[in-house]
Amino acid sequence: MSQTLFRNVQVIDGSGAEPFSADVLVAGNRIEAIGRQPGALRAAPDAVVVDGLGATLMPGLVEAHAHPSFANTPSMPALGDIPPEEHTLITMKFVRLLLDHGFTSINCAAAAKPRVDIVIRNAINAGDIPGPRMLAASPEMTVTGGLGDVRLSHMHRETFAVVADGADEFRRWARLFVREGADTLKINPSGDEGVPGAPAHTTVMTDAEVAAVCDVAHHHDKRVAAHARSADSVKMVLRHGVQIVYHATLADAEALDMLEAAKDRVFVAPTIGITWAAYKERGSLSADAARRLNHELELGCANMKALQKRGVRVLPGGDYGFAFNPMPRNARDLEHFVRLLGFSPMEAIIAATRHGGALMMQGGELGQVKEGYLADLLLVDGDPLQDISLLQDADRLIAIIKDGVFHKAPQDRRRQAGKLAAE
Ligand SMILES: [Zn+2]
Q: Does the structural domain 61-359 have CATH classification 3.40.50.720?
């Protein structure tokens, strides 16, 4: 079994423990041993030895709301203009870019075509293309006039969502996406800023529609993720057992209570990145739109602070994938968590690693530097606890290891164990 020994690293293990100096031995795809006595761990003669020179070794990042097929297009309708073949290649490029930027796992929040996440996930798992661990999503299931319904009467226009009305139509789409192999079924029960007939505070799906999708997911052991900005949509999806609540920005007191009551099974990702970018960086906003976005940002940040205090798992993942909020700068969400949500850098890292491992449904083996855990690791030049923004700089990622294998190998720090012993 191949071995890699990291010597002289500062470990942020993802558990929340204080960082510590150690040597870390990886055997195969697992973390075999962590030695706090310098030089105490013994590696096989053919092991690769990496002298960390005091760099930070931490778990790989988990993106909680990934859209690798969203292609950084200027608009949502533009996603419908990409033919399937090009779209598959574009998605292949972006999953690699996310791994290049330290995301060793991505939980997809919606695919722009029914099978694109699925075939890319399968190709990664088969070792055919590089990419993170990946849970594949269905396209967004939305109602007529809801977020994602970009059709126009009398015009042909392909969309990135599927439009359904009534429980039977939702059930049919849900079954179809289960058949094709999606891990996560995505629904859009609330509206969104900029959707003319369905602004963010509105709730557009019915209980029966949400229940139909949740029922299919339940029977097939899949999860449902909900685009739920409005308070009523958060409550609605929690009533039906949805496990992943995206946004929750406009939650009211009752919705916060319900999220807290479900904290052992539910994950919240506010996607602050896209709201921030839409408000602060996109430009050409009407005064009304600016007011609404400002309100959503302020209330959303306050709500996430409250949820974090109440023990709800709030995860970074900022809906990156549009020209105004592009991939692969996804690690910017960790900085948003620190600057806007008041998380400490350690809390932001826990959210993106330990909680991320749980989100990937591998809580007992992913997201921490711990003996027996999967070796998804970053060797970082510097201390992200001092400056969380350095995780956004791919040049500061000295090494990226996924499943025990170097995706990015360190330059000038590697030697062979046998040679090292002889010196
Ligand atoms: Zn999204």
A: no
* 110 CA distance to ligand 1 middle (Å): 7
For every residue of 55-113, DSSP letters joined together read -EEEEPEEEEEE-TTSTTBSSSGGGGGS-HHHHHHHHHHHHHHHHHTTEEEEEE---SS
In the chain, the largest separation of any two C-alpha atoms, in whole Å, equals 77
Q: How far is the CA of 67 from the centre of ligand 1 (A)?
A: 7
**Amino acid symbol at 35:** G
Q: How far is the CA of 323 from the centre of ligand 1 (A)?
A: 14
Separation of 250 CA from ligand 1 center, angstroms? 16
**CATH number among 3.10.560.10, 3.30.420.10, 2.30.40.10, 2.40.160.20, domain 3-60+368-422:** 2.30.40.10
Q: How does pLDDT run across 74-89, given as a tens digit for each residue?
A: 999 999 999 999 999 9
Is residue 282 within 8 A of residue 326, CB to CB? The reply is no
Q: Which residues of the chain fall below pLDDT 50?
A: none
